[in-house]
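Appendix B. Chain record.
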Amino acid sequence: MSSQQTSSALQTTVAVEKITITKPPLGSPIRRTYTFRVKRYDPEKRSYYWREYKVELTNHETVLDGLLKIKWNQDATLSFRYSCRMGICGSCGMIINGVPRLACETKPYDLGTEVITVEPLSNFEPIKDLAADFSNFFEKHISVKPWLIRKDETEQFEKLDTYYPQTEDQLSDYLEFAYCIKCGLCYSACPMVFLNKDYLGPQALAQAYRWSADSRDEGAVLRLKIVDSENGVWSCHYSGTCSKVCPKDVDPALAINLLKNWLLSGKRRR
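Structure tokens predicted for this chain:
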């Protein structure tokens, strides 16, 4: 190695030695013991009952973490649904302290209570404990045809060589409503679904608007015929609870009112 190469290597070492990596300060987790009051459903007896569990959690852990600790360490028979654990799949919807929420995004520490009440979602048929049957919910979702509809069946069902261009303004017409993860929280919070089991509900109606507002779609007329009914948009009395509980800040109540506006004004004809 020449003297020039040796000098260059030393400079590199010095430069590396000057680099300092500082980890951000991480405070000690705050540990608390919570009482989980869980409303469970027994499918054999077809009845509900309550069970209480003591669970220690930090301020970083969620209600889902608490339920998993119960299942692993105290009661393996406890049933509930979950998957991604990061607020994407929408599987862990349940009523927590009286409000429909995602268990994976709700921290007991943030709720500010020592007792955490957990119940299955309202307006859904129970399966077991906290797991609810989403069959009717998804049937209503499918009934509004939540996909792009083209009048030309070649475009509808065959692979095309080109794409449908869309401007930023056209995208903004429906983007908010495309964030729906089908968790069912809006459906559970809706008082009109409770009163009328045939009502399509806020999730399906919001998706009817989402796809009809898409500039690439030509199926708005078909969807408006479906939602223009006693069990469609006209059952909504605008309580707004659907929009308040959405974990993705989708506003189904707004979508329903926009559908009503189309129906009353006749502006959407495609």
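Further analysis of this model is presented in Appendix C.
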